[in-house]
Write a structure and sequence with these properties.
There is one protein chain. This protein has about 525 residues and is mainly alpha-helical.
Length: about 525
């Protein structure tokens, strides 16, 4: 299979996964741009976004997104001791995952009418029928996601990162391809093509292609229903399966409760959520993925002090970088949203409605980064219960807040409720960590956050006024072009001020740059 089956070093793996994350988010924004152009913030877009509520919950119930965290350490240990036992254990996990995925998906399709009312209670009967049709297309994709996550664990175990990096790109590319081409060919109408793309992309990117690469390096599977390690696997995975945390269900709450606040609310909240998650993915997810192997390795060696230092550094760096970026995006939200979503059926009125939603969701970005990294700390310690249980309790507590307080006030209140839930979860999880492990990993977090905020303020303020001046002065120009010019100027002003100030006052955020500058200074002084 050539490069697809080639093993990579840790450094190359980090680059591949980081590049994949960036490209995947960019493709996701392109996808949302096309959808907003074609359908705006209308009922068809509401139905499409709502069709993912139940499939995503099935994925959460079977811990699809966290499969590698639980499965890889167990597979690694078993394969290193006895390869034959390793394949038996893998076969048992894959067998039960396939059965569970088929069973839950079939059950959801049988009761699709009842589930559709829970997923989007605010839709009328006509739109609800459309939602049921979309769900019949998107639900089977979970089989490919869930069984594919098991196969993907083998690739991570073999240090073959090309396919895991390509999988989200194939998935997003398939949605765009089928969403655009099938209606043009007259085969479907509305957003049906996008749902078909979800199914095809999941099948190819997350199961078939990984399976093909795994087979090229040796693959043995025989259906098995028992193995001594299954009990341990279930004990570790069960909290992730049963624990429906506020982080896992945040996007679903935006869709479910957004459907009760009028037409277009689900779409606008989804567009804003997608854009607000870009900085989180670029900083939080990358920091969490990069630090997790080191955290596990340090604990395995019994180096608790090193574990704390790595976790503290990840928290400080992630938070110190996300705050300036989120602040800059929030102040430039009108131009950011116009650049990405204006045009077609997405008019200026929808943009004005979406801007405060984006700004509120961006305020949650530092919370997301802290939670991404801190939960990895718990997982590295083989504690999957604490984040799941505490997150579930916060989720239950916020259900009435969403329904009774947020829904009557509209989409802005829904977004504020999302922020409040994440804030409370961060406080709870942080308090538990401090009680058990002390405050060492949070040392310097507040000071670095304030420092990065102060370093970012000059560039953010200059960028805000420059963008406002450009938008007011170029009213006859295309809103998209005006937004591009405003963001470009604002971005240059931000970089020109934040980077020098950050290097001077927050060197931990620019450690490599700072080291190179000192090295060059030393060379010059020696010369």
């Amino acid at each position: 299979m050539g490069i697809l089956a080639k093993s990579q070093s840790l450094g190359i793996a980090a680059l591949l996964l980081a590049a994949s994350t960036i490209l995947s988010r960019c493709m996701g924004l392109v996808r949302e741009k096309i959808i907003s152009w074609q359908f705006g913030a209308g009922s068809e877009a509401d139905v499409y976004f709502a069709s993912f509520v139940v499939p995503d919950i099935i994925n959460y119930l079977l811990a699809g997104g966290f499969m590698g965290i639980v499965l890889i350490p167990l597979l690694s240990k078993t394969f290193s001791e006895n390869e034959e036992e390793g394949w038996k254990f893998f076969s048992a996990v894959l067998t039960w995952m396939g059965i569970a995925a088929i069973g839950l998906t079939t059950l959801a399709m049988v009761f699709v009418e009842e589930l559709s009312h829970l997923a989007a209670p605010g839709l009328n009967d006509t739109l609800n029928l459309r939602l049921q049709f979309f769900m019949h297309l998107t639900l089977p994709a979970q089989f490919f996601f869930l069984t594919g996550s098991c196969v993907m664990s083998l690739l991570f175990l073999r240090k073959q990162f090309v396919i895991p990096a390509l999988a989200p790109l194939i998935y997003n590319g398939s949605i765009i391809l089928f969403g655009v081409t099938l209606p043009l060919a007259g085969l479907v109408h509305g957003m049906t093509g996008y749902c078909v793309g979800v199914l095809v992309g999941a099948a190819i990117g997350t199961l078939l292609l990984p399976l093909l690469v795994v087979r090229s390096g040796g693959f043995r599977y025989r259906p098995r229903f028992s193995h001594p390690l299954l009990k341990k696997f279930l004990l570790l995975a069960l909290p992730l399966m049963l624990g429906q945390t506020i982080t896992a269900l945040d996007e679903q709450f935006l869709r479910v409760f957004g459907s009760l606040t009028g037409e277009g609310s689900v779409a606008l909240l989804s567009y804003a959520k997608r854009l607000a998650q870009v900085p989180v993915a670029l900083i939080g997810q990358v920091a969490a993925l990069a630090s997790y192997p080191f955290l596990v390795s340090l604990l395995t060696k019994g180096d608790n002090e090193g574990f704390t230092k790595v976790l503290a550094k990840a928290l400080k760096t992630g938070t110190g970088l996300i705050i300036p970026l989120a602040l800059w995006m929030a102040l430039l939200a009108p131009s950011a949203f116009s650049l990405l979503f204006y045009g077609g059926r997405m008019a200026q009125g929808e943009i004005l409605r979406a801007v405060p939603l984006l700004q509120i969701l961006l305020a949650s970005a530092p919370l997301w980064v802290i939670l991404e990294i801190l939960t990895r700390g718990f997982y590295a310690m083989m504690d999957t219960v604490t984040p799941a249980l505490s997150g579930t309790l916060v989720t239950i507590a916020f259900l009435p807040v969403y329904y009774f307080l947020a829904v009557p006030e509209g989409p802005v209140a829904i977004a504020l409720c999302s922020f409040a839930g994440l804030f409370v979860f961060t406080l709870v999880l942080g308090a538990i960590w401090i009680k058990r492990q002390g405050t060492a990993c949070f040392s310097g977090l507040v000071s670095i956050s304030l420092c990065s905020l102060l370093c970012a303020l000059p560039g953010c303020i200059l960028g805000y006024y420059a963008d406002a001046f450009i938008r007011s002065g170029l009213t006859d120009w295309s809103p998209v072009l005006t937004a591009f010019i405003g963001l470009s100027v604002a971005g240059l002003l931000f970089l020109a001020t934040f980077v020098p100030l950050g290097i001077r006052f927050c060197p931990v955020l620019f450690e490599r740059i700072h080291e190179r500058m000192r090295a060059r200074k030393n060379k010059r002084s020696q010369a």
